[in-house]
Amino acid sequence: MLSPESRRLWAWPVAIGVLSLSGLLSALVSDHWGDVWSWVALGLPVLVMAWFSWRPERTA
Known about the structure:
Blueprint: H1 4-29, H2 33-54
Helix pairs in contact: 1-2
């Protein structure tokens, strides 16, 4: 089993991976609403990465 620290560390990366996978599969097999979902599901990880890359660094 994973320790609580490992679960806390890997929770968001796994969630973003599942979101991306659902967006990719939706883009491949669905029409209209699937296309909308694929845009949302694939755009959200890009927005998260942009947020964390443009956020000012915190000093310790």
